[in-house]
Specification:
Layout lengths: L1 H24 L4 E2 L5 H4 L7 H14 L16 H7 L3 E2 L32
């Protein structure tokens, strides 16, 4: 009976990890030269205002030659570009269909562990 429980748990874990892996790899890309503001807003950490800034920059300066040219847009520095670079393309179709959530970094310093009040006798 125990072996069957272990087998069931193992299969459940494998199916969950496979689903998570498939979700990460099938996210898609956004072509920053052809995407509209709604498609650009699917990128992690990019909202409607930043997406519109990309569209405006592209309208004024022409197509981006390489993904790193996105850093010429106000508000897109190294950190922001690093977060979205895996989802950015300058050619091909936009295949990203849903908003990508990026993990948030904790703010501030982590709480220091409290000293134990256990007194030894």
């Amino acid at each position: 009976m125990r072996k069957s429980h272990i087998l069931i748990v193992t299969l459940a874990l494998l199916s969950l990890s496979a689903a998570a892996f498939a979700a990460d790899n099938s996210a898609g890309v956004v072509n920053i030269n052809t995407a509209d503001a709604a498609q650009l807003a699917l990128l992690p950490g990019v909202g409607a205002k930043a997406a519109q800034q990309i569209v405006d920059y592209r309208t004024q300066h022409g197509d981006f030659q390489k993904p790193t040219d996105l850093m010429q847009v106000k508000g897109f520095g190294d950190k922001r570009f690093e977060r979205i670079s895996a989802y950015v393309a300058v050619s091909g179709k936009t295949t990203l269909t849903s908003k990508v959530k990026s993990p948030r970094k904790p703010k501030g310093k982590p709480a220091a562990p409290k000293p134990s009040n256990t007194a030894s006798e």
